[in-house]
Amino acid sequence: MREKQAVKFPETLQECVRYFADEGRALDFMKAIRWPDGVVKCPRCGSEDVAFMSARKLWRCRADNKQFSVKVGTIMEDSPISLDKWLCAFWLIVNAKNGISSYELMRSLGLTQKTSWYLLHRIRFAMQSGSFDKLKGQVEADETFIGARARNIHKNKRRANMYGTMIGKTAVLGLLERNTPDTTSRVRLKVVESVRRHDLDPEIRKHVEKGSEVHTDKLRSYENLADEYVHQVIDHAECYARGHVHTNGLENFWSLLKRGIRGTYVNVEPFHLFRYLDEQAFRFNERKDNDAGRFIKAVAGYVGKGLRYSKLIGQEDGGSLPPETSGTWQAA
Nearest-CA neighbor of 119 among 163, 164, 151, 80? Predict the structure, then answer.
């Protein structure tokens, strides 16, 4: 009997759609991501004594006599959306340089706009990676404000208030570790209360290794960094670069981030901003990988996370899935 030829893993969106249209192939892929050692375990009790029910694509745990799917205990839990649509949505968002809107996803996958919006936020949660590795070497630190354009704000509000924040805008701190011969540059982003010293200084010390060379502009909030770091300052009133002293790497990233937000999402509520930062930082940090590599890395983050709709829209009863922390850093 002729042996069935192995199907090549997708490298493009068209191949992704075809590949995961096979329900069994999609399930096998998610099973390999969920249980890489090949041993299926009950997500509730951890027992390996399970039986697969092929007709329903479910497992039954003999220890607690309960059924579970590959979605249980993940961002996909309680979702009626099929795996092929989930995986195509993952592919679209991780490989679209400026992101993809819920309306575009709605048209592409045949979902409602509300479902698409919820699905995209859960995928952004999967793209969120909390790393304990500190940035080192040459690190740029800079801040920006995300929100309405100044010309669209009433002239009476078009000024910084006494707390160092722009009316109608949200402050974001960025850290960029410059590339080395062995690594590419990577960013970490966080929404902060203001750009005053008590908000910026502790975050830099928390995420940058002592002794590193930190490059900032002349904002006074950075003045105390010289006690633990080689602090290099560039005064933008004079020039934008002095040899290797500059923050141009982060300035370029801010341009990319804002172009995506304004061009694709148009407007982002401050309550949800950190999710969009996670999305853009993930794509930036993985930019040297190919489409399939970014896709696999993003899908691998779907395990052990959950986001109820009630929590997403700010209700108190956010459900029983693992809570997420607003303002979490996105790391490579």
Answer: 80
Structural tokens at position 250? 């982060």
Distance CA 174, CA 188 (A): 6
Summarize pLDDT for 231-263 with one digit per residue, the tens.
999 999 899 999 999 999 999 999 999 999 999
Across the 332 residues of the chain, what is the mean pLDDT of every consecutive 10-residue run?
A: 66 95 95 94 92 93 93 93 96 94 96 96 90 90 85 62 61 95 93 94 95 95 94 93 94 94 89 94 94 95 89 66 41 38
Could you tell me the CA-to-CA distances from 80 to 56, 72, 85, 177 in Å, in that order?
14, 12, 10, 40
pTM for the whole structure = 0.86
Length of the chain: 332
Taking the alpha carbons of 72, 73, 79, 82 in that order, is the dihedral positive or negative?
negative
pLDDT tens digits along 141-167: 999 999 866 666 666 665 554 444 566
**Residue 292: strand, helix, or coil:** helix
Query: What is the distance between the alpha carbons of residues 171 and 265, in angstroms, rounded to a whole number?
Result: 18
Query: Structurally, what CATH architecture does the domain formed by 138-269 represent?
Result: 2-Layer Sandwich (3.30)
Q: What is the CA radius of gyration of the chain?
A: 22
What are the residue ranges spanned by the domains of the chain?
Answer: 8-38+71-127+289-332, 138-269
Residues 193, 166 contacting (CB under 8 angstroms): no
Looking at residue 160, the DSSP 8-state letter turns out to be B
**What values do phi and psi take at 263, rounded to 5?**
-80, -35
